[in-house]
Amino acid sequence: MLLDGTLLPIDRIDADRPFCSGKHKRHGMNVQILASPAGRLLWTSPALPRAVHDVRAAREHGVIRTLTDTGITCWADKGYRGAGGTVRVPYWGRRETLSAGQKAANRSHVKIRALVEQAVATLKSWRLLRKLRCSTTRITSLVQAVLCLHLASSDRCRQGHHERRIQGASLGRVTMKAGSSDGSFVL
Questions:
Q1: What is the tens place of the pLDDT at every residue in 174-187?
Q2: Which of 3, 21, 143, 155 is the right S-S partner for 76, CB 3.0 to 4.6 Å?
Q3: Nearest Cα to 108, choosing from 137, 88, 126, 86?
Q4: Is residue 90 packed enough to be buried (19+ CB in 10 Å), middle (13-18) or exposed (0-12)?
Q5: In total, how many domains does the chain have?
């Protein structure tokens, strides 16, 4: 698994301190993302004010505890330093002070983690999430809806490719029914 946090920019005034990101110098909401080792977006957390640090947000959502309890190894960036459990972070320190082995480990860590940026880009490719101009209480619902639509469309594409390959014919029209008993989308 790959773990990362991202900023979803929002339209807020300077008086809204909890939403201000010191790193990005803008207002936003913090969303944690879990991606597969192939870079596929799998899960997004509820949105928190950007003033919340990544490791704190992951702990509040129970991500670290769940990954540790299930024994799933997770790669994350230096923002998750001190997370513990099965979360792997790169070695901390200035490049000049790291040993050759630590530098090599950090290089391989970066190569593994690069795929989570594809998942972040997938989420941010939705125009709706580029700059949110709604109430902060609605952002979690919007992110979850985007995730659901993304998963439904990617599963449909994968299923369609598989069926076309097997049957040698096109699928025809596929409809999506919303509102199944468990709240998920059914194709």
A1: 333 334 444 433 33
A2: 3
A3: 88
A4: buried
A5: 1
